[in-house]
Amino acid sequence: MTSSYELSREAYAAQGVDTEKALEILGRTPISVHCWQGDDVGGFESSSAGDPGGGLAVTGNYPGRARTPGELRADLEKVFSLVPGKHRLNLHAFYLETGGKTVDRDQIETSHFQAWIDWAKSLGIGMDFNPTCFAHPRAADGFTLAHRDEAIRDFWIEHAKRCRRIGADIGRALGSTCVVNVWIPDGYKDLPIDRVAPRKRLIESLDAIFAEKLPEKDEIDAVECKLFGIGSESYVAGSHEFYLGYAVSRQKAVCLDAGHFHPTETLADKISSVLLFVPRLLLHVSRGVRWDSDHVVLLDDPTRAVMEELVRGDFLGRTSIGLDYFDASINRVAAWVIGIRATQKALLLALLEPAKNLREAEESGNHTARLALLEETKSLPWGAVWDEFCRRHNVPVGTTWLSEAEAYGQETTRLRS
Questions:
Q1: Which entry of 39, 75, 218, 257 is annotated as an active-site residue?
Q2: Which residue out of 34, 112, 159, 226 is catalytically annotated?
Q3: pLDDT for 317 beyond 80
Q4: Annotated catalytic residue: which of 36, 116, 156, 183?
Q5: What is the DSSP letter of 150?
Q6: Beta strand 253-257 with 287-289: parallel, antiparallel or unpaired?
Q7: Active site residue 183
């Protein structure tokens, strides 16, 4: 009996697509899984638990939030067992472990993250890292690296410097380059008079942070823009234009977050322009609903468009793909799994496009054929290819993963309440 995958393989071959090549590329493309979905962006500092601040708002009260590093790592292990492929962990600095000691953010060291490094090494995965410039008394007025108070700026500069060194140590220890991404909430709720001074201060702060040269094989720097947030609806110092100019002039990676732009902007359209001028791209795959609300990623048109652009432009080798959302209204483990699998499905669909036929139609000026082929491609049997990918990686096929996630919730996470 011919398997559904063999039939789908033949259907794609008729369009000039090699499904085996698509599966091979998908299998070696990791997703950097964000730790903060598991504990509602709480971190493990007593001063910040339960109140992320910085314009971040986590809604919902589904039981079972991870309360300790051990619980969070256990949840992540369950997630990794339900998604195909080998992935990464994206860790924020306030998920440190200090053994009960109070360590402020300008004093953090690699030793405070050694348990995370050891855990990642045991799983054979890489890690990425982020300064945490929110949920702290010195960020209470909404400004950090662009603050008018030099002492506050210096505090956050030192924090970010240490994060870069920690990231380099992580990359070296795991043998996998660590992307260290700088995002700050700095902005005004209402109309500012002086838009330029905070941005000048931000340039000075960033230059101080990046002054130390670190091996690129260990650590890559990225800067992340934002359109607005809660409490910074009228002005954000680190806008897209600001960070694009900074990244081009300093040759840093740019982080594009799917929820950080106006709802009518197309993130996919920015990718080819940005990568003409910067060495690398960091994508935060998210789903904004009406505003930057960081909903669970779905297999929707915006996510598909982003992955299509990465494949069509041959940008996968210069792009790091991570997730960034937090939903406390549903099973947190399931939220992770839904988002990871949706992102991978979007990438698979992009890899299964009949690229040669589409390019030939476009280059010959046959835009009718281009549009027709794009539409017909949507009905090709890609689901069977996805199921084959899951089978080869020994993870649940179809919705069978959901029963495992729900059982884990009943047996483990719900008991935390």
A1: 257
A2: 226
A3: yes
A4: 183
A5: H
A6: unpaired
A7: yes
**Distance (Å, whole) CA 323 – CA 83:** 14
Through-space distance between the first and last CA atoms of the chain, rounded to whole angstroms:
50
Instruction: Write the pLDDT tens digit of every residue in 250-292.
Output: 999 999 999 999 888 999 999 999 999 999 999 999 999 987 7
Q: Give the whole-angstrom CA distance, residue 127 versus residue 164.
A: 13
Measure the CA–CA gap between 35 and 213, rounded to whole angstroms.
Answer: 28
Instruction: Identify the architecture of domain 30-351 in CATH.
Output: Alpha-Beta Barrel (3.20)
Q: Is 284 a catalytic residue?
A: yes
What's the token pair of residue 286? 């998210």
Q: Can 224 be counted among the known catalytic residues? A: yes
Domain ranges in the chain are 30-351
**Backbone φ and ψ of 205, nearest 5°:** -65, -45
Q: How many angstroms separate the CA atoms of 353 and 365, rounded?
A: 19
Check the CA dihedral 48-89-99-168 and report its sign.
negative
Cβ-proximal residues to 98 (8 Å cutoff; 6+ apart), any chain: 112
pLDDT, position 219: 98
Which tokens belong to 196? 């330029």
In this predicted structure, what is the pLDDT of residue 51? 58
Residue 49 in this model has a pLDDT that exceeds 60:
no
User: In this predicted structure, what is the pLDDT of residue 228?
Assistant: 87
Within 10 Å of residue 415's Cβ, how many Cβ atoms?
Answer: 10
Mean pLDDT, the chain, rounded, equals 95
What mean pLDDT do residues 200-227 have? 97
Q: What's the pLDDT at 290?
A: 85
